[in-house]
Amino acid sequence: xxxxxxxxxxxxxxxVARGGSDAGRVLASALILSDPEFQQQLADRLIALGPSAxxxxxxxxxxxxxxxxxxxxxxxxxxxxxxxxxxxxxQLQSPVSPARAAAARxxxxxxxxxxxxxxxxxxxxxxxxxxxxxxxxxLRDIGRALIAPHSELLGSTSPTAHAKVSDxxxxxxxxxxxxxxxLLDHGNPLVRMTVVEILGRIADARAVEPLIPVIADPDxxxxxxxxxxxxxxxSEHAVRGLLGHLTNADDQVATEVxxxxxxxxxxxxxxxxxxxSSSRRDLKTAALDILGRIRDRRARPAMAKCLNAPESWLRxxAARxxxxxxxxxxxxxxxxxxxxxxxxxxxxxAEALGELRVPRAVPALIAVLGRTSSTDYxxxxxxxxxLIVLLAAARxxxKIGDAAAxxxxxxxxxxxxxxxxxxxxEALADVRDPRAIPALRNLARxxxxxxxxxxxxxxxxxxxxxxxxxx
Length: 471
Description:
Blueprint: H1 3-18, H2 21-31, H3 36-49, H4 51-60, H5 66-79, H6 85-91, H7 97-110, H8 116-125, H9 129-147, H10 159-172, H11 177-181, H12 189-202, H13 208-211, H14 220-232, H15 236-243, H16 251-264, H17 269-274, H18 281-294, H19 300-305, H20 312-325, H21 331-337, H22 343-356, H23 362-369, H24 383-400, H25 406-411, H26 418-431, H27 437-444, H28 454-467
C-alpha cells in the first residue's frame, strides 16, 4: 500500500470506527474515487473493520448520488453478513429502479429468509419489469441455496427419506417455491411428484401457473399429485386451471379434478356456477355435483333454478345436488318436485329431502308412500320406476328419523315387494319408535308364522336389536 493511500485510508477507517456524520460524508466521497487500487484497499480495510463499517455504509446506501449508492451496496454485499440486510431491504423502496434491482441481487447472496417476503412483494408489484425480474431471480437463488442440502433425497424411494425432505422443504415455505418450480420438468418422475406434493403443501399462488401444465405429465401419479396440489392452493386461477380438466379423458384425473374443486371451497363457487349456463350436459352435471359437495349455501339460488329446467335429467341432478348442499331453504323447492311428471326426478327429490333431514318434509314424503300405483300419474311409465320413488321416500323418512312416519312405514311391512319391505325395516330402525316393535317382531317370526323372506327377517331382527338399548 502506498503511503498516500495508507494515510488516507487510515483516516477514513478511523472516522468510520468512531462513527458520526463525518464518517458517512467522507466515506461517500471516497467510494466514488476512480482509482481501482485505492478502492480495493479501502474495501479490504472496511471489511476488516466489521460492524462499524456496516453502519457507515448503511447510512449512505440511500445517498442522493447513484454512484455512491451502487458503491455502498457493492461493499455491503462483500460482507455476506446478516447485519447488511436492513439497509438492503430499505433500498428495495428506493425511487431509483437500478437501486431496487441491485438491492434484490445483493439480498440473494445473503440467503436470509427475512428478505423473502419483501422480495416476493417486489417480484409481484414493482412498477419496473426489470426490478420484478431481479426479485424473482433473487428468490430463485435463495430457494436453490435452501434446496441444495436436500436435493439428493428428492427422488428417494424410502418413505422415511421422502417424509423428511418434504417436511424440511415445506418448513422453508415461500422461500423455495420458485426454485422448486424449476424442478417440475426433472427427468425423474419421483422428483417431480415430490416437488409437486411440496408445492401443494406450501400452497403459494405463484406455483399455480407452473403446476397447471403438469396435469398433462406423462406419469399418472404425477398428474394426480398436480391436481391435488392445485386443489390446496386457494385461488381463482387454480380453479380455472382445474376446470380445463374437469372432463379429462383420463377418468382418474377427471375424478381428482372434481374433488380438488371441492377442496377449493368458496374460491371455486363463481367459476363452477358459470358452468350451469353451459350447453354441455357433462359440465352441468359435474358443476352441480361439485357445488353440492362444497356445501356453501350461497350456491343454492343458482342450483335451484335448474329444478325448473325442461330436461328431466337436469331437474333430477339438481335435486340430488341440493340434498348434498344441505341447505334447509331448498326444502320447499324439493317438496314441489315430488309432484314432477318423471318418476326418477321425484325419487331424486325424495332422496334429497332425506339428506336435508328436516321434519317439515315428513308429510310430503308420507304422501308419496300412499301413491302405490303408476296409474296415479297420467300417461306414466313403468311401475319399476314408481318403486324407485317409494324406496327413496322410505329411506328419506328413515334419515329424517321423525316418529310421525312410523305408521306409514309399518304399513309397508306387508307389501310383497322385498326391496320395499327392507327399506321400511331399515327406516324404522333409524326412527326408533317403540310403536314399530310389535310389527317388526311379527315380521321376524319363523315360517309359516311369517311369510317374509330370510333377508327381510334378518333385517327385522337387526332392527329390533338396534332399537333394544333405547327401549
